[in-house]
Amino acid sequence: MQNPRRTIFIIFLLTLLAIGISIPEGLSLQFELFGYKIDRELRPLQLNIVTERLRIQKKPETVLGLDIAGGVRLVYEADMTQIADVDQERALAATRNTIERRVNMFGVSEPNIQTSNVGDSRRIIVEMPGVTEAEQAKALIGQTAQLAFREFNEDVDATSSANIIPSLANTHETPLTGKELQRAEVTIDYETGNPAVSLEFSTEGKELFKTITENNIGKPLPIFLDEFPITWPRVDVVIPDGQAIIRGGFSSEQAKSLSILLNSGALPVPIQVIEEKSIGPTLGQESVQKSIRAGAIGLTLVMAFMWVYYGSFGLLANIALLIYGVITYAIFRLWPITLTLPGIAGFILSIGMAVDSNILIFERIKEELRLGKKWQVAMELGFGRAWDSIRDANTATLLTAFILFNPFNWDFLPQFGLARGFAATLAIGIGVSLFTGIFVTRNLIRMFVRRK
Predict the structure, then answer these.
(1) Is 423 in the same domain as 329?
(2) What percentage of the chain reaches a pLDDT higher than 70?
(3) Claim to verify: residue 233 and residue 359 sit in the same structural domain
């Protein structure tokens, strides 16, 4: 059996790191010890790893969901009657992208915007924590995206400088708009082998685009979406057939993002509010306080039972349970996981799974001792043989969490944000509980429990 001291030291360092990440913003430490007065503001640890090949800079934060922070939840239904079946998913994604950009412009912190398919219905769910002006947000979101092709004014020498950023002031309108753009897709520029974006115009747009390219040879052609420039590719040749390629040394993600932006104006999808829900921050805070109080009472009772019934085993299991809680919360802050009331419920449920693992292990150790095994042998066999039951139980729960989270957005599975929040916290909690139940508790017992 390996020496557990080094392992316990690593667990100790990991716990200190998790505590540092879990420290809330604005926490002050004030006390006086042996004549020295301590008055410091504690700040959470920040990940700052910068190398030639790796760059990780992350500030931990606790993201509160709509039901805790308060705000507005809007459910829109997209009218796909004028959109071909093959273009519906692309049109829905483009509409969602437009809504997300507008919500970010509105100044909403940590909005949650996702698509949902319910039968033949295509929906977009918008959750905006902290929003009080619901009507203003609805007016901003509900506008149809406006894609416009503009030209630089005559007094702007766009050919002499590639750093000129187009604006409404230094450009003017053309007859070409998003109505004439049939589609924008990611393609490959066969001259360079880099990702590019292809444009295809309608019959009317083909003639308009030909005239515009004739008038702007060697000049950038600004493309605006909702009065903001998204790209301004240079016109190299006259394009008479209405099929163009935007080059620019794009990465795959950049080309995909640009195509979605262009499609959000090329495929305007009417949307209609079918559900609106406002939650006050006071109601959310009261709910989370009651949830935390209930969780704390339940956790205290469980820890007391473990200590009374299993003695030193239970005490070490409680220590492992506290380590579990700190590590899990640190992961929530680093991810970051949006904490909702169902998410908190998933976390509390995973605590029960962690306790259940310890009970299975301890009862299995007792059985081995009753069979006359020596203490060290019984302890190792107890952990090893309890693993089968722990693995099966947690695997079944993880499969349930996978179904609820539905990462691939399958139509026959739920696609609701609250269910996904519950599934995410439950899955993370179970993963950490397996680590603490098998790894941490086992080494604590090896280190601190001595029996003949």
Answers:
(1) yes
(2) 87
(3) no
